[in-house]
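Me: I keep going back and forth on a fold encoding question. No explanation is needed for now; the record alone will do.

Assistant:
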Amino acid sequence: MMEFWKMNGTGNDFIIVNDYKGLLSPEKLPGMAERLCERHLSIGADGFMVVTQPSEAYRDKADFRMLFFNSDGSMGEMCGNGARCICRYGYETGLSGKNQRIETTAGLVTGERLSERIYRIRLNDPEVIRIDEDIEVNGRRLKASYVELGKPGIPHSVVEVENLCEFTERELFDLGRAIRNYRGYPKGANVNFFEITGEDHVIEKTYERGVEDFTYACGTGTGSVVAVLTLKGLVSGREVRVDVRGGQLRVDIDKDPDVPNHINSIFLEGPTNIVAKGDILDEELEL
């Protein structure tokens, strides 16, 4: 029997377990993630997060470590909405204070409790930004920007779609999958379709690598979209509102005016929701 929390951040939902004592076998975690995230057979979620002690390199820098797994069992570098949820988990379980420091595979992420449910995090800094590349998928030539957050980087393809709100996710599915597997993205990519709808106001739909479908939100993708638009001068980079299927996120960008295509920091703010707490009783799960 194992305790869990079920949380979501703007509809991006996660199962969180605490393995601070190191009782779980690391080689079994991918299988656990795949099983527990299966919506028809187990609890169901977009991702699975395991809280552990910081590694030796982060012992004095982080309050705890977050291991993140996609719903297909693959390990992810980091997850923005997941990090906001786990910041709240850290605060409410006493692992951290009102300011949180989380070790992730992509590097250190810091968080801040703004209110009971609203958390703001600093995403991993961009290591790679390529603006408006020409790519060809499914016989179509498109303009796409490419962003990697952290090191190793979380890959994102940022693609503008006119009248995006008129398209269903099903209508965009084949294009999203094709871009996600584009040969120019060695690790694949989260595909972030966007449209600017007003001053500092954007809508976004994301096909997520590892989930292999559209999700209600993608925090790192939202940060990547606003970073690209800020560098292009299409948004201010201050309190940019991004509407996703699960709600609204806000992003602040600090860019370096003296270095082209260089972002100093990306801050992501939005709501968290505790859905359930309980014991994992899945009889098919191998621990």
Remarks:
- The chain has a mean pLDDT of 95.
